[in-house]
Amino acid sequence: xxxxxxxxxxAYFENPNELIQAANKARDAGYRRFDAFSPFxxxxxxxxxxxxxxxxxxxxxxxxxxMFLVAVALQWWTSAxxxxxxxxxxxxFSYQAFVxxxxxxxxxxxxxxxxLGMFHFNKLGFLYHPLFNSxxxxxxxxxxxxxxxxxxxxxxxxxxxxxxxxxxxxIEIEMIGEQV
Amino acid sequence: xxxxxxxxSIETPLIENNPTFGSVTEKIxxxxxxxxxxxxxxxxxxxxxSLSCVALxxxxxxxxxxxxIGIWGVQVPNAWGWAIIxxxxxxxxxxxxxxISAILFLFRQKWRTSINRAAEAMTIFAVMxxxxxxxxxxxxxxxxxxxLPLPNQMGMWPNFRSPLLWDVFAVSTYFxxxxxxxxxxxIPDIATMRDxxxxxxxxxxxxxxxLGWRGGNRQWQHYEKAYLILAGVATPLVLSVHSVVSFDFAxxxxxxxxxxxxxxxxxxxxxxxxxxxxxxxMIVVRKAYGIEHIxxxxxxxKICKIILATGLMVGYAYTIEYFMAWxxxxxxxxxxxxxxxxxxxxxxxxxxxxCNVFVPQLFWFKKMRSSIPVMFVVxxxxxxxxxxxxxxxxxxxxxxxxxxxxWDYFRPTFWDISTFIGTFGLxxxxxxxxxxxxxxVAISEVKGVLPQADPHHQDYHNQTxxxxx
Lengths: 180, 469
Description:
The complex is a heterodimer of chains A (180) and B (469).
Chain A: E1 4-13, H1 16-28, E2 34-37, H2 45-49, H3 56-82, H4 95-122, E3 145-150, H5 158-167, E4 172-179
Chain B: H1 2-10, H2 21-33, H3 43-67, H4 82-106, H5 116-137, H6 163-196, H7 200-209, H8 217-250, H9 262-288, H10 297-327, H11 331-342, H12 346-358, H13 366-369, H14 372-399, H15 414-437, H16 443-449, H17 457-464
Helix pairs in contact in B: 2-16, 3-15, 4-5, 4-8, 4-9, 4-14, 5-6, 5-15, 6-7, 6-8, 8-9, 9-10, 9-14, 10-11, 11-12, 12-14
């Protein structure tokens, strides 16, 4: 049997309102490595947790611009350099006719990079996570609301953090462990 | 303050019967978890029926590859026939899904949450059906890769000045983005299925597809941002796709095709036909799976209103084409429009006009917008009309071209018809599999629009002394 180490202290709540207040208090108490779990995004939770705005938009914009350049370069090089075809006397680099594909590829770049950026920030694709060791934790994708404080938080102290979470009047508190 | 409270109490709820978060999960995921109720037993019969149409499609396409395009009714001057009509028809149907998932999202129309998953699925399957046609229509199908800018030993590159190539890029981008948008929307729901999975196989499959989703706000934050961006880029994308499809016609010199009204006219028509298809499907699905409290009559009412609005736009386009043909003083243009309404294809023109312009006028009446049989019949007639719209555009302009000696009357062959029916089989097979194996309603989004999902909901009830669990 592998050794088990504590990973996070999880407190379960009744509804979104209690969770958002709990997140507010956790932030005020100085905790940084905590997360609020819910079956749907809760309006106002980002402020309650004090999260900085997501940077997915920046990645998406960069992706879009790069694909725009790819579209310009591809159409210019194939039509004017590699394979110039005389068609109805049109210029080889007829940029007006290249607009639709510049547009489509920019959209494709924005969409792909938005998704890849989101996967990167959310660490999606890593199928294992210590929180999955808890049976109870699965309820947050159904109807559960939970606040979890990582043991890695500098302020974390088993007793004090437990007392703090109990002061929020949760339904249940659970220590979720991780196999080392 | 009291005004606000009164408004709250009379506002019709988006989801009826006041379900709990848990009951929404239970209702939707249980369909994917069992073969018994709420799955309708006729599902398997529908699937077998659709699969036999897929067999017809495979047979028709196989015979086409064996013999060549000559098995179809296409013949000079009608070098474009049913394949292009069906392509435009299917791409158009897809547009409603993106409109619901992206444009209504940007406009914060919360009612979209009940139908967006199924409508997006419809988009993906419709675009798949659409992509069949240009692919098999090229004749030498083994050379279809020439449409892609791939380096080859011939040193040859596609012609980027052609709208047909723009179409390749537009439709393939549209398919890719729609599929990704749909999948991103599915991730939290697949995580819900994963956490409920009872067997190891189910846990492994859903575990991989859920990508390790946990539902923490640190994930939701980036997720919502990405979803917003996807909606933001899918909106101009969907408008551009049917515009580019219309360029296939508008950029040519043919009377009846060479008009600047084509892009908006095609987009309106696409949304019109797509919403009609959404209505047809939703009427059956909500009844068959007992989710009438999630996809309510209020949803159907709103869909009918959009059909009415887009139907009026389409009617405006039909009328303004005649005005322009007369006002421009162009004899070729006037000739072709006279021929459309009174010539050899007048029967098709008037089927189109009646189904698309007259029939939807029923939806001015509340009674018609709440009668299921009326809505069902109208939704089917609209799609019949929209198919004929593309038939009229493609065939009537080609059949009477500039050289009267080559004029001809277009007749489809058995293989034209069998291929078209076959794509319906493909569409319904995919849709039936979707209904059984994928959560057909966006569970996390529906939970998010329930009244108790609002963090201020409890404050309000605590004040008034009510309590909800």
